[in-house]
């Protein structure tokens, strides 16, 4: 790599912050038992330096200057978990002015080609045990072949912090694309949302905090857990990708975890596991002590039912704060404190970052519009076109609806998917799920649009119950004083033991497959006589 001094990193906020942290934050910053690594900041910088040299070879740019490579803004893929390897790969890519593109691993292989068409990658970096998937992505490139490189780390003893510095001549604009994360893909192949290099660099330091990284790297939540932590000096414990609740509970039991941001599915799975396997365990108090050591627990991705929030507060002693954000917004944008999360249904709280501006299209209600430094800059392939999702004033049209209660925002649903077009008017799914979840015999509930030739869509309820057999008649009678008549369910399917919903790429409910599974042609669902 000509014209570059070893140990010199670009003159930008990313590497200035890392070198600053290396001087201030001592001790282990990443504990990754999945690959046997306990890394300090100096070790991270050493591994990034070695990986950067390997990447120059993989890009075929050995004879080019660093400034020349940086100017190309190459897109480099990553296949793997949100682990220490991801950190090494990401910062090596960024050190060469590239764009970090963690590839979506949960899509069907027949869609790999569609993803690769959008990405236009220069090469792929593969974590341990992900070589097969990396090779599958590689084979989908038809234009010009690209290389797959292993990620190198722990190749030598870490150099002292004084060995690393900033090369004032290697400047990279903070507005240059740097990160890509993928949407859930609930309506098709996931979309790659592009963010610039300043996505994480302005967050305040948190030296006394520790979190768990257990999500795939290609979700914004996976990137948050690992990469944001390294920008703020927060300790990261890596769990296996998509680890089960038993593994996660064991890590919590060990203590020291102080902050967690995770999905409804994550908290629900842990609550169910505790109820079924740990409540009567001799070590129950150890698990509870670990949970109660979590000072900040945010829940998002979809709206939690009140009973889940109360279980975490009253039984597990770890109150949850409802968070709202998205891949496009760059992560968490609003947060409700634990008591407000329970007392004001569907409340998503207030803005976390004062540098963001959030508006509702109709003043105190309507479509959520957002503008701020972390908002994405568009999708791969410009699909859909940027001008269709950002208005003339620069606000991202999120597709969510909300209203205000005092200074708080209350979530009403996704405009395209969280309202059922029933005969009497639109039925808000989130509102109905909250209402039904309060019935004492309901353990789990999903409100779904069930196609019907006569009315277009029925209001379908998929529920798991305790006690006696639930009928549609009883459910309607129990709801008649709670919800408007046109919102009453007209289809019911009770889940049996061992049955579960279909989930999408990001643990969210996959509506169409779930409707087909439980309300399809051979379904045993109960239907209400509509009297037409």
Main-sheet strand order equals 13-14-15-16-17-21-20-19-18
E-strand count: 27
Mean pLDDT across the residues is: 91
Q: Over all CA atoms, what is the radius of gyration?
A: 24 Å
Helical segment tally? 16
Low-confidence stretches: none
Pfam families: AMP-binding
GO molecular function: medium-chain fatty acid-CoA ligase activity
Domain AMP-dependent synthetase/ligase: 72-380
Protein name: Acetyl-CoA synthetase-like protein
Record keyword descriptors for this entry.
27% strand; 4-stranded mixed β-sheet; 532 residues; Rossmann fold; alpha/beta
What's the structural blueprint in terms of helices and strands?
Elements lengths: L7 E4 L1 H12 L5 E3 L4 E3 L1 H18 L7 H7 L2 E5 L4 H12 L3 E4 L9 H8 L3 E4 L4 H9 L7 E4 L14 E7 L5 E6 L9 E5 L13 E4 L6 H13 L2 E4 L6 H10 L4 E5 H15 L5 H9 L3 E5 L5 H9 L6 E6 L4 E5 L2 H6 L3 E5 L5 E4 L4 E7 L14 H4 L6 E10 L2 E7 L4 E4 L2 E4 H9 L4 E11 L3 E10 L6 H8 L11 E4 L16 H9 L6 E2 L5
Parallel strand pairs: 1-8, 2-12, 4-5, 4-6, 6-7, 11-12, 13-14, 14-15, 25-26
Antiparallel strand pairs: 2-3, 9-10, 15-16, 16-17, 17-21, 18-19, 19-20, 20-21, 22-23, 24-25, 26-27
GO molecular function: medium-chain fatty acid-CoA ligase activity
Protein name: Acetyl-CoA synthetase-like protein
GO biological process, one term: fatty acid metabolic process
């Amino acid at each position: 790599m000509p014209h570059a001094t070893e140990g010199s990193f670009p003159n930008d906020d990313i590497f200035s912050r890392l070198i600053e942290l290396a001087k201030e934050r001592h001790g282990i910053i990443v504990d990754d038992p999945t690959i046997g690594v306990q890394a300090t900041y100096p070790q991270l910088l050493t591994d990034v330096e070695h990986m950067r040299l390997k990447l120059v070879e993989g890009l075929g740019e050995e004879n080019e200057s660093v400034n020349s490579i940086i100017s190309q803004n190459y897109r480099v893929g990553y296949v793997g978990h949100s682990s220490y390897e991801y950190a090494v790969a990401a910062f090596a890519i960024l050190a060469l002015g590239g764009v970090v593109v963690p590839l979506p691993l949960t899509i069907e292989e027949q869609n790999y080609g569609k993803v690769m068409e959008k990405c236009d990658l220069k090469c792929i970096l593969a974590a341990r045990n992900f070589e097969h998937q990396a090779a599958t992505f590689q084979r989908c490139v038809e234009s010009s072949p690209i290389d797959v490189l292993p990620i190198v780390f722990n190749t030598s003893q870490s150099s002292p912090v004084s060995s690393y510095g900033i090369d004032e001549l290697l400047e990279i604009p903070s507005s240059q694309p740097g990160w890509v994360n993928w949407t859930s893909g609930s309506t098709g192949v996931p979309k790659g949302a592009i963010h610039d290099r300043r996505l994480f660099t302005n967050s305040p330091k948190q030296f006394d905090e520790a979190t768990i990284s257990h999500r795939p790297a290609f979700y914004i939540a996976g990137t948050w857990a690992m990469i944001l932590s390294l920008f703020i000096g927060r300790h990261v414990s890596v769990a296996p990708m998509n680890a089960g609740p038993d593994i996660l509970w064991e890590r919590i039991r060990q203590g020291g975890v102080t902050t967690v941001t995770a999905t409804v599915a994550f908290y629900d799975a842990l609550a169910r596991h505790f109820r079924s396997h740990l409540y009567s365990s001799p070590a129950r108090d150890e698990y509870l002590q670990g949970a109660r050591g979590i000072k900040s627990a945010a829940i998002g991705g979809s709206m939690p039912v009140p009973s889940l929030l109360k279980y975490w507060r009253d039984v597990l002693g770890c109150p949850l704060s409802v968070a709202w954000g998205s891949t496009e917004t760059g992560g968490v944008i609003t947060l409700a404190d634990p008591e407000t999360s329970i007392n004001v249904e569907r409340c998503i709280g207030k803005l976390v970052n004062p540098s963001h501006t959030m508006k509702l299209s109709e003043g105190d209600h309507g479509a959520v519009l957002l503008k701020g430094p972390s908002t994405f800059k568009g999708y791969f392939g410009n699909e859909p076109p940027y001008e269709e999702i950002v208005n003339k004033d620069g606000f991202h049209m999120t597709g969510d609806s909300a209203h205000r209660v005092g200074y708080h925002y209350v979530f009403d649903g996704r405009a395209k998917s969280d309202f059922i077009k029933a005969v009497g008017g639109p039925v808000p799914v989130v509102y109905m799920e909250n209402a039904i979840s309060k019935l004492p015999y309901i353990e789990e509930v999903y409100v779904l649009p069930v196609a019907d030739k006569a009315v277009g869509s029925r209001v379908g309820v998929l529920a798991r119950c305790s006690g006696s057999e639930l009928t549609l008649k009883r459910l309607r009678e129990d709801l008649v004083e709670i919800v408007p008549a046109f919102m009453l369910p007209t289809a019911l399917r009770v889940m049996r033991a061992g049955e579960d919903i279909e989930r999408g790429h990001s643990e969210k409910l996959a509506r169409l497959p779930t409707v087909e599974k439980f309300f399809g042609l051979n379904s045993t669902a109960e239907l209400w006589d509509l009297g037409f």
